[in-house]
Design a protein that fits this description.
Layout lengths: L3 E5 L11 H11 L3 E4 L8 H11 L2 E12 L2 E8 L7 H26 L17 H10 L22 H9 L13 E2 H10 L3 E4 L2 H5 L3 H9 L4 E6 L4 H13 L3 E5 L21 H7 L6
Parallel strand pairs: 1-2, 2-3, 3-5, 6-7, 7-8
Antiparallel strand pairs: 3-4, 4-6
Helix pairs in contact: 1-2, 4-5
């Protein structure tokens, strides 16, 4: 496994599992020396995680992963070395969580329309209902086998490697049958937010998002995007080669991250960035983190 992982989620993400302390324990056991907790739309984990990281000798990069809109595409923008103490981030978290609450009941309705047995009552006490939680509930039902639509996500199924998030991608992502639009800020505004708080804006897992980023690259650069998450657990070797070539051609920064969540993506482990570069070259690629 790699010693550097710049895309990790804690329980502060709606789809994350582990506390800050548990993540740092796992990171130490995994041999990480540099890591970034980049939770969805929040920096709430950073104040607690920083002293824990220092105590175990790991460099922690204050980071965030912001949901944004770009031509109707939900683009995840990573912001590295942001000023996590800036109150703008807490406002961002509260705004987006409010929008997510509003989408919860509609997600349930659309899941019911697929013929699946789920109601709001199944999530009592849960403030926000995300697709991964719906998948977890359905797949843990004793009668889950009675619903053929769930079979690919069960043990041995074609989508069972990361069942909860795969269910999300198959049914709740853009243009899928259960997609519920949430009004996110524009990518332009997200880039400006990251830069105004001292951070570096990087597009997360671009091949998973764009399925071919090159047609969009000139515009992304014009908006202020500074780099691409080339090495990702989502990317195939060919996609990595294509992205790496594009990044170098356009003088973009290159990053590497596992997108570790815990049970949402059980086949993804800390350090599983797919990066084959020698450690020395990885350190050169992320010199920007220390400027």
């Amino acid at each position: 496994m790699n010693q550097i992982d710049l895309h990790i989620h804690s329980h502060q993400s709606l789809d994350g599992e582990f506390t800050e302390a548990e993540l740092l324990r796992q990171a130490k056991e995994s041999g990480l020396s540099i890591m970034a907790i980049a939770d969805h739309n929040t920096v709430r984990a950073i104040p607690k995680a920083l002293p824990l990281a220092e105590a175990v000798g790991i460099e922690l990069i204050p980071s965030i992963e912001i949901d944004s809109n770009f031509h109707g595409i939900n683009v995840h923008l990573l912001g590295y070395q942001v000023d996590y103490k800036n109150p703008v981030f807490e406002q961002l978290t509260q705004d987006i969580f409010t929008r997510e609450r509003g989408a919860s009941s509609l997600r349930i309705e659309k899941t019911q329309a697929l013929g699946l047995p789920v109601t709001m009552d199944n999530f009592k006490g849960m403030d926000i209902i995300i697709p991964e939680k719906i998948a977890e509930y359905l797949l843990k039902r004793e009668d889950a086998r009675d619903y053929p639509l769930l079979h690919p996500y069960m043990a041995g199924g074609t989508r069972s490697d990361n069942p909860y998030v795969n269910f999300y991608w198959d049914y709740f992502a853009n243009e899928k049958p259960c997609f519920v639009p949430v009004e996110f800020m524009s990518l332009k505004d997200a880039v400006e937010l990251v830069k105004e708080t001292g951070g570096v804006p990087i597009v997360a897992h671009p091949e998973k998002t764009f399925n071919g980023i090159e047609p969009y690259l000139a515009e992304l650069i014009s908006l202020g995007v500074e780099g691409l998450e080339v090495f990702s657990s989502y990317h195939s070797p060919q996609e990595i080669l294509t992205l790496y070539t594009l990044a170098k051609k356009h003088n973009l920064l290159v990053t590497f991250g596992s997108d570790y969540h815990g049970k949402t993506k059980p086949s993804v482990t800390l350090g599983m960035t797919q990066c084959k570069l020698p450690h020395e070259e990885q350190m050169k690629e992320i010199e920007f983190l220390h400027r």
